[in-house]
Specification:
The chain is mostly helical. 49% of the residues lie in helices and 0% in strands. The chain contains 15 helices and no strands.
């Protein structure tokens, strides 16, 4: 049996949290705030309407389409600024994901919870960082969004920006004191730093940028290069050698293993040969 669809002519209160009238979606798509205001005067409970399948509210829709004027009007009409849809995402998440800075700013000004996360631990800052929306990153960081929050998809927001090569977002996060050497915490990748995530995903520019910002002592980088060469981590080794070519000529020591010759020190080439001979 098909579910009845509400229309503008009907009282939408009976359909609240079930079906969003298509006429309302059209107003939001056009960011037609005056028409939306007139409609809400007649049907004030329409602010509670949701899309049947996604459970998205009018505020979710306005945030995702960047309809800032309508979004501000909905907030003034009492829309729930922290409502979650079926994916456990808030309106602020969709505003950040789309890079709609005006919507992010309005939601923050209305008191939206900047630390709210979905069921995977993903925050609005993760969303903005993933898509490389540096302006939204800056707004969220200024509102004290956590730089250290880890989700189960990418790790911290900096890991997310690194994984997808979002250079402007990386710069904003690092300038806001995101920890460069923090591990992502993902299974089997617990200790992967942001530059390692970038290198693994062949985001060479991002890996190079992160290494230049990190300014780690050569000894630390040499140990990471040994691991990369020993275990065939080509992307990470490539990034390290691009950043510090002298690593290729260094003789290094590592406390956890020796190459086949059992020498006290060895080069990265020894490690690479060891990897191929033990596969």
């Amino acid at each position: 049996m098909r579910q009845a669809r509400c229309t503008v002519a009907k009282d939408v209160s009976s359909c609240a949290k079930q079906v969003m009238p298509p006429e309302l979606q059209a107003l939001l798509n056009k960011d037609d705030a005056p028409s939306l205001q007139a409609f809400l005067r007649q049907q004030p409970r329409a602010v509670e309407a949701r899309v049947a399948d996604s459970e998205a509210t009018l505020l979710h829709h306005a945030a995702s389409t960047g309809s800032a004027a309508c979004l501000r009007m909905l907030l003034a009409a009492g829309a729930d600024r922290d409502a979650v849809d079926s994916a456990t995402h808030t309106p602020r998440y969709y505003a950040a994901l789309g890079g709609h800075g005006s919507c992010v700013r309005a939601l923050l000004a209305a008191g939206a919870n900047v630390q709210a996360a979905d069921e995977q631990g993903t925050t609005a800052l993760h969303a903005a960082a993933t898509e490389g929306h540096a302006a939204s990153v800056e707004l969220l960081v200024a509102a004290r969004a956590s730089l250290d929050a880890r989700d189960r998809r990418t790790g911290t927001p900096l890991h997310a920006a690194a994984l997808y090569g979002r250079l402007p977002a990386i710069l904003r996060l690092v300038r806001s004191r995101a920890v460069l050497r923090r591990g992502c915490g993902l299974p089997r990748l617990e200790r992967h730093t942001a530059w390692q995530m970038a290198a693994q995903n062949k985001q060479w520019d991002a890996a190079e940028l992160l290494l230049s910002l990190e300014q780690s002592p050569l000894q630390i980088l040499s140990e990471e290069a040994v691991w990369a060469a020993r275990f065939g981590m080509d992307g990470q080794l490539h990034a390290l050698l691009q950043h510090r070519p002298q690593l290729a000529r260094m003789r290094v020591e590592h406390p956890y293993f020796r190459v086949a010759s059992n020498a006290a020190s060895f080069t990265l080439l020894h490690c690479a040969v060891e990897h191929f001979t033990t596969e």
